[in-house]
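help with these tokens:
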Amino acid sequence: MTSHQEAPGELSVLVVKPDGYRSPPARAYVEVLLAASRLSVELRYEVCLEDEDVMDTWPKFAGPKYPITAELLRLYLTSGPCEVIVVRGPDVVGRCVEVRSKVRARFGTSAFANCVHTPTEPHEIAPNVEKYLVSLPTGRPFERHRDEGTTEGITGRLAAVPRPELLGEAREFWRTAQDEGWRAAWRPRPTGGAFEACLLPGDPHSVDHGMSLIADALPGTTPREVISAYVEAEVEGRSCLLTGTETQARDLAGRLSAQGLYTEVRPRAVA
């Protein structure tokens, strides 16, 4: 157990995820931010999370609403060691969120490569503290709390794909990204036509619902191509969904924007 000067206040958790743990600059930045936060460290340790640990930490993904997120999150969080830091202090949640936000802004690339976790909702904090302060260090059984998720999940064409096939597509996307890099996992860029309809990051929906909207708008795409297009927008800042005439591009972008996604239409760059 490692501790700073004792600070009053509540407990919370920071989990440095595998990509953050593998990055010396990211870990060093966590230390700088943690020192500046003036939070007291109650306990810290390295751990290799297992599937059940991931679902205990994010229980809404244990249900059927968000299967793609659950599979990618499971693959991400079990891909290597993490560091758990249990902290205490005044405004502990706000200070942990500040650490998370600054680390992600500098080192994160997507929802599945964002370096640091901390719980933010009141019903998440106590179970996370129990999991990482008590259950994992001591082996004491952990009872997962119920969380059905408040955002809409998978719908439409993606929801009709048999679940084993859908999860297999997610695993194949993740394997390619991990073995060969993000860009090897992107779908082939559409060609032809003078304009592009592009997806931009910042989807306000759940990941699964955002992907569902794209799948329904582009009926010729495979689930893996939909996953690729969605994640590419987060990593690269945009993802080209369609090339064609200006009217075609604006029609697709308009339909997706009307459903809450962020899009843009621009002239196609010709090499």
About this structure: Residues 1-7 have pLDDT under 50 and may be disordered. The longest strand covers residues 40-47. The chain is about 50% helix and 15% strand. The longest helix spans residues 163-180.
